[in-house]
Q: What sequence folds into this?
């Protein structure tokens, strides 16, 4: 641990962020950490800064469980954050539909889409946004798509193999967890409103990137619920979780964890709910808080 803590201390000068509201760990500290990835822990280039990587290892070395709570499927994470981080973190993936305990935490869960809603979403998107790219996610590894023009790129980025791509019919049999819709920089708000109207109460549509992306998931799934399930075996409640988020899909995680932190680039709804505020994802906001935590607990 000494090598990580020594390096962390070198980053501790952040006087220019004096207006931020950072947690004080001097008398009391959280017992676990839950982190959103995109626009929170990752920078705007969707990469993990070395400073953040370093302090994540530092948190692991002082014995606190780490949970990544992301909209991404697991197959892309080796490229985005690296195998070294995956080895020390548990995972809540694909908008909280699948959770897996690792690195000292146990348990797993999966929420599946209402099959009628999944079929209706697929058909409505074909009709109302025919150029949009859809991915029907099964388990974070296998998936179906409505296109083939960039499959090779998908495989390369995801370290996938052709066997990971299945037909829509096969995906429906296996139990889909999520549908992602990429508008290719086109606003999908009109489609989202139609889906809101036509899908059942079992399913919710989340907007991202100014509605250029949609994530369609079971309403029963939540980041905070999945995080709580993974921590049950360790006897840790959400009251003792330090959480970070920036967007609509993080609202329940920020609302339900007592140590909630908004990055500066977050949406207003997250800023209103979070107890603390740190710097933006491009200014190492998550790392700043975790460095203070490691220093306090070393």
A:
């Amino acid at each position: 641990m000494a090598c990580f803590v020594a390096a962390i201390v070198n980053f501790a000068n952040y006087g220019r962020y004096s207006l931020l509201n950072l947690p004080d760990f001097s008398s009391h500290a959280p017992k676990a950490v839950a982190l959103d990835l995109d626009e929170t822990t990752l920078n705007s280039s969707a990469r993990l800064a070395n400073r953040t990587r370093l302090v994540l290892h530092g948190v692991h070395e002082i014995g606190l469980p780490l949970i990544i709570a992301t909209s991404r499927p697991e197959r892309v994470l080796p490229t985005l954050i690296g195998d070294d981080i995956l080895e020390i973190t548990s995972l809540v993936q694909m908008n909280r539909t699948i959770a897996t305990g690792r690195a000292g935490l146990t348990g797993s869960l999966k929420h599946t889409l209402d099959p009628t809603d999944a079929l209706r979403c697929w058909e409505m998107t074909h009709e109302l946004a025919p150029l949009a790219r859809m991915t029907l996610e099964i388990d974070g590894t296998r998936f179906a798509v409505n296109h083939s023009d960039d499959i090779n790129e998908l495989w390369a980025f995801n370290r996938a193999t052709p066997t990971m791509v299945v037909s829509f019919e096969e995906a429906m049999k296996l139990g889909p967890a999520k549908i992602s819709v990429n508008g290719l920089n086109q606003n999908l708000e009109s489609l989202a409103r139609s889906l809101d109207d036509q899908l059942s109460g079992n399913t919710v549509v989340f907007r991202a990137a100014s509605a250029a992306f949609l994530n369609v998931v079971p309403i029963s799934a939540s980041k905070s619920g999945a995080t709580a399930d993974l921590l049950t075996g360790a006897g840790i409640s959400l009251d003792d979780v330090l959480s970070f988020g920036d967007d609509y899909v993080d609202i329940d995680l920020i609302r339900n964890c007592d140590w909630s932190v908004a990055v500066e680039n977050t949406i207003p709804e997250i800023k209103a709910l979070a107890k603390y505020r740190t710097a933006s994802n491009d200014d190492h906001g998550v790392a700043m808080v975790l460095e203070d935590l490691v220093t306090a607990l070393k």
